[in-house]
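Thread: Newbie trying to understand structure tokens

Hi all, I'm a second-year student working on a class project, and my supervisor (Dr. K.) asked me to get a predicted structure for one chain before our next meeting. I've only ever worked with sequences, so writing a 3D structure as a token string is new to me. If someone could post the tokens and maybe explain what I'm looking at, I'd be very grateful. Here's the chain:
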Amino acid sequence: MGFFMVIAVDAMGGDNAPDEIVKGAIQAVKEMTGFEVLLIGDCEKIWEIMAREGFSGDRIKIRHTSEVISNDESPTRALRQKKDSSLTVAFNLVKSGEADCIVSAGSSGALLAGSVLILDKIAGVDRPAVATAVPTVSGNILLIDSGFNTNIKPVNYVQFGYLGSAYMRSSFGCENPRVGLVNIGVEDEKGSPDVREANRLLRESELNFIGNMESRDFFKNVADVAVTDGFTGNVMLKLVEGTTDFVFGEIKKIFMTNARTKMGAAMVSKELKALKHSVDTDVLGGAPVLGVDGLVIKSHGTSTARTIKYVIAKAKKLIESDFIGDLKREFAEIYPVEAKNTES
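---
Reply by user tm_fold:
Sure, no problem. This is what the structure looks like when written as tokens:
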């Protein structure tokens, strides 16, 4: 690799900030090489946490900011008024090229607004979307949009399909991703007028569209990219996370029932650990914002240090892959007229 990457981390974003965010950054630089973390936020609080953790500061730098954008603020107004907020500064660092990526567990609304207002959209993209990879019986399925856009037009479903397909090719080596449209039935006539129109547009596109898919088929390897609006996607994602926690909790109760079940647990402990790791929300944490001219990764609001460590690892991998460059070139080919008009 020909350069030393800088990953900007919003130290003040998320329910457990700044403690868990800073500790996650420390764990990341201890376990991985080839990058530097730039923690953005209250310098005094960050140094206090680093001192408590006994960390000297090697490969972690701090950019002091005096403001924080909270979840209950108007995202656009906050970004414009709070010029010295940790998130605004992080966006500007990526915009100027001083950082290669933003990692934040903060306000989703502010993250979307900053992505569009400061970094701008890739030519040809109407609405950026957040994409979350979920493990299935065979590989991963990408859920897009998983939380940004609650109201979208039929054409946005198509663009999400292109964005998701490009990401699956770049990050998972899936050469011809199958795209499914999340719906209440597999028949073409099912769903709202917008979803039915989206189905028609997807069929006319050059995507490998397999038609409608129901949420119950989400884990059955029927598609590689599941396209939906941000409201539906976020509900699906949180239901998956809650169900996973519930099932593993119940399995643990069963195995702890008596001496016989405990013996059985010991016999399959290796396999159970592997299964749990494959669906671990910390390991899978970090969803890239697709469609903007810069690498932005959203971590969930309740992120722990372990989550942040894995999200930074994902950021490192995406920077190395030049995913944003690939995506821009692909959209320039798909929407050459829009790209030309945007640049002029």
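A couple of things are worth pointing out once you decode it. Residues 337-344 have pLDDT under 50 and may be disordered. The chain is about 50% helix and 15% strand. Feel free to ask follow-ups in this thread.
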